[in-house]
Amino acid sequence: MTHKPNRRMKKYISVIFLVAGMWTTSASGSEPYVNAFVGKTVMNHVGRGHKDSGLTMLGAIGLGFENNCRIEAEVGYQAVGNNGEYGSTIDSDMPVLSILVNAYYDISFFDIATPYITAGVGETNVYPMGITIPDALQTSKTSLAYQLGTGITVPIGDNVKVDARYRYFVTPKVILDPAFDNQKLSSSSFLLGLRFNL
Q1: What is the pLDDT of residues 150-198, one digit of tens each?
Q2: Which residues pair with 44 in a beta bridge?
């Protein structure tokens, strides 16, 4: 029996993309874009039985402005292996799903490449026992989330850029194993992606 997506997460997705659509049609002096990333994530304080490294995938729509600032709505997925956490004998991934609003500042010092810094805030859902096992075993945790990062973009075409970044992601209210590791769940991700101007 498959776990149904969190209704509140659906609402956040709808609101964020509605607002982004309004920005795309009404903002002056702005350039819309989409991007997608994939990379390796290392999670901290994942508790007993979890692997500490896995996969991260991100997708976003955004707007770039003439003052070197950008803003975007992002959907993210991170996962590490779960081998018996919470007494389960099922070996499945532990997904972390997130919806964030991110801000960027591009540092235009170079013609060939553009470094940037970023910060974002939103909501995350953590599924310590996976999202495809029976409902009776489900334990999901919802929390505020934020991210900080830095990266660099390199143009490879008129409307395409390669984007490499490091990101630190934190869920302040999610503690997976309070008896053994009473620390908030966080992750460091090294990502490579493409950005397409629309």
Answers
A1: 999 999 998 999 999 999 999 877 766 665 555 778 889 999 999 999 9
A2: 186
